[in-house]
């Protein structure tokens, strides 16, 4: 009786061990370094917010990356590594922000300086200088630190596939790039799609406007991990305040598991 039970237990343990080995192999060949997407770092951000983290959570997350040996590199370097087919070391991460909230300067920037971590911010050009947005002086100060780089997030944060006129689309893309380059005095190679929305026509226009790299959120349509005009990002919000959730998001396996879960 006991011998039979023992055999069953050993067989189950063998199956579990085999499944774990298979899972490890599958994950190993589907590792993709994470590009994180933040928006606002706002005092009082609640767990229900999809676009904000609290300053306390942001500090905890940046400390996690710094102390756990993550290799945090600028988004443009990250993208260029993909373009040149350079293998990035395990635990490589890029940090990005969308929209250009004022608290990127008042709350996020001091934390990034404290831990020496680079980040990129995608700016809505026509909103610069608004009371809740970055000013050009703040943008230039952040750029001068050597830690923060900037890309375009269009002129007006419009949904690009809905822009029917080719002239208007060019203004949102090429026009915003020209203004940003003029204000910053350096080439702008990066772009982020508002709300992550794009289609083939928009991608072609982005390339024509002179961008090398474009960032989405997590495209619902199947795009490759090496598509330089649809680089996948992981949205970080106060929901990621849990250390386990954040670890999973920066692990390099989050996108693979999420895609297969949706299937």
**Overall number of domains:** 2
Please give the largest β-sheet. 6 strands, parallel
The whole-angstrom Rg is: 21 Å
Give the quaternary arrangement of the chains: single chain
Number of strands: 10
Count of helical regions: 9
What does the overall shape look like?
A: globular
The rounded distance between the terminal residues' Cα atoms is: 44 Å
Q: Helix- and strand-based class? A: alpha/beta
Task: Report the CATH architecture of the largest domain.
Answer: Alpha-Beta Barrel
Any low-confidence stretches, pLDDT <50, length ≥5? 16-29
Order of helix and strand elements from N to C terminus: HEEEHEHEHEHEHEHEEHH
Helix content: 40-55%
CATH superfamily of the largest domain: Glycoside hydrolase/deacetylase
Average residue pLDDT: 88
The CATH topology of the largest domain is given as: TIM Barrel
Give the class-level CATH name of the largest domain.
Answer: Alpha Beta
Strand content: 5-15%
What's the arrangement of secondary structure elements?
Layout: H1 2-28, E1 34-38, E2 40-41, E3 52-53, H2 55-67, E4 71-72, H3 75-83, E5 92-99, H4 103-115, E6 119-123, H5 136-144, E7 148-152, H6 166-184, E8 190-192, H7 200-208, E9 213-215, E10 234-235, H8 243-250, H9 254-262
Parallel strand pairs: 1-5, 1-10, 2-3, 4-5, 5-6, 6-7, 8-9
